[in-house]
Amino acid sequence: MTPSIYNKQDLVDHVKSQIENLIVFFEDDSDVLEVDVRLQLVDGTYYFHSGDSQFDDDHRGAWGYGCIDVTEEYSDDDLSFIAEEIVNEALEDFEVQQQEVTQI
Q: Is 18 helix (H, G, I), strand (E, B) or coil?
């Protein structure tokens, strides 16, 4: 396994914080029930995306995906679990891409 340049706990904390912000942002918007969220790992940094993925212009790197029901009451543990699932998916994608590069 190739050592990751990404700190998993930092990523989880960042994604969790961004999800919390989205829930607060949309809490009074009755038109929005769910928000797609994505974590992009590229060139040693990471980006958090939300909303419709068709508007993502940069498709490079590794990705983790999730969907947040902004009407749901999440516990701190629930948010941590969701964030960790998104991060794990992105890190697994990153690992696969690293293995493909070393095989070339």
A: helix
DSSP 8-state assignment for residue 92: H
**CA 2 – CA 95 distance, rounded (Å):** 7
Could you tell me the two tokens for 103? 């095989």
* Predicted model pTM: 0.86
10-residue stretch averages of pLDDT, the chain, 104 residues long: 70 94 89 93 91 86 94 94 96 88 70
- What is the Cα–Cα distance from 80 to 93, expressed in whole angstroms? 20
Interatomic CA distance for residues 32 and 5, integer angstroms:
35
Report whether 35 contacts 22 (CB < 8 A).
Answer: yes
